[in-house]
Amino acid sequence: MEKIAGRIFLALMAVALGALLFVVAYAATDWYRTGSHFLFDSLNADPRPVFGYAWTDLKAGSFATLQYAGAAALFGFVLPFVIAFLMRPPKRNDAKFMSMTDVRRAGLLKPRGIFIGRAGGRLVNVFAPHRDRRTGKLRLTRPRVRGGRKLWIHGDDVGGFVIGPPRSGKGAALIIPNALMWPHSLVVLDLRGETYEATAGYRATFSKVVRFAPADRDGNTAFYNPMDFISLDSAQRDIDLRNMAAALFPRPPANADPYWVNDARLLFTGIASYVMESPRIADENRSFATILK
């Protein structure tokens, strides 16, 4: 529907521009041939008489003035279509792998921004005994890239998407190198903790490193107390606790029974209210841990 509306608008624009150039060219040619600017002056008030004179010339077989007006009308009619044709996005059918010349022209060799890989070089096996994580077998060599140029991409809004099977080196090839080289603030979703183990020591030399892993069995995690954000005002406190309960116990799908979720929210809100208001509980103990107890 949008394409049809666009084509109709383009056709109307072509007709309007063609008619405009026709009357202007006809009046200007008549002025030049007869020396009278009556028709040209009448364009501001009503251009319709020009079409009447043109029709009279056409019936009389007089094309001296019509030929210039017709040429101008044809130009005005075709112009919008030509512009639309030139402005349409080109179809890409020349895709290919970039050569080093293309890489250099694209500015991917400038060492700034995000590291995205390496161009050129060759893959060699170097002596490095290790145990394969996928198979558990002992390997004597590791593949390494020798030579080539590092590739970087820089911009205000840069995104990337890496796909590969498990243990194929996605983190080692892209995430860990960028975590080591990125000089600014960085947030990493590190479910296995591998990026933290590989980069935290180095990043701690120039940046503050915080590991938030609330499910860590050894308690090796930064933490905060969500209850510190609960208002001390009793009316606002109830609203804050209900909002927290809604976040902890999301609403079930439309076809599921909401009974258990609603009861869980009520239970949490009631116990949390007691923990927040009870004078027997010290301020430093008003936390999720106390609620669980």
Characteristic key phrases:
10% strand; mainly alpha; 293 residues; single chain; elongated; 4 domains; two-stranded antiparallel ribbon; 10 helices
What is the rounded Rg? 37 Å
Broad shape: elongated
Strand sequence of the main sheet, in spatial order? 1-4
What class, by secondary structure content? mainly alpha
Number of domains: 4
Question: Which oligomeric state applies?
Answer: single chain
What fraction, in percent, of the residue positions are helical?
40-55%
First CA to last CA: what distance?
A: 62 Å
Strand fraction equals 5-15%
Order of helices and strands: HHHHHEEEEHHHHH
- The helix count comes to 10
User: Which whole number gives the mean pLDDT?
Assistant: 83
Structure summary, number of beta strands: 4
Sequence stretches where pLDDT stays below 50 over 5 or more residues: none
Q: Sketch the major β-sheet.
A: 2 strands, antiparallel
